[in-house]
Amino acid sequence: MLLQFQEFTFDAETRQLLRSGEVIHLTPKAFRLLEILLDSRPKAVSKETLIENLWPNTHVSEGNLTTLIAEIRRAFSERASTGELIRTVHRFGYAFCGDVKAAPSPGQSLPVAFQLVSPAGSFALMEGENWIGREGALISLDSPTVSRLHSRVTVRMGAATIEDLGSKNGTFVRGDRIRGPVLLADGDEIRIGAVTMIFRAFQGSETATFGG
Prior knowledge:
Elements: E1 2-5, E2 8-11, E3 16-19, E4 22-24, H1 28-40, E5 45-46, H2 47-54, H3 62-75, E6 86-89, E7 93-96, E8 101-103, E9 113-118, E10 121-125, E11 128-133, E12 139-140, E13 151-156, E14 159-164, E15 171-173, E16 176-177, E17 182-183, E18 189-192, E19 195-202
């Protein structure tokens, strides 16, 4: 099974970590450490347990573990002080704290269409970049609370992510203002300024209405 969080995809079978479809290199032990934290989420894993799993029957210092954590955080472009995905549990260990969703494996069927649904109608999302704004955008929203180019939904490899483009009034997903790319799931509520929309993922001939 593939796991997705923010713009990342974790594939345990192929032993790959991808960011927006691009492979990010991790050393084997760093990859295994991330796998353990993902499998244990949201629970924290002690340093002793991690060391035992990563270096069985071998005496190593905690510094080795700290080095692997730093490697994973660099892959996420994350600083230790933010803890957006890897949380340090003081004097205990570490935990994965990101919002994780299961993605279809290559052998499974993928949604054939994505849409944004609003009271004013629905907008089909194309493969690639879909710009949302007040004017000059693929998805045009007539509201003074929407910036000229407000946000962007990127559809790639059967998944969709949304990011804000420095708008004045912000982009919100599931009630939270987003600060970076966020993976979307079917039924997610999105607010562009004051305009509320629902993200829908479909297969076959399904259609959607706002709130349905």
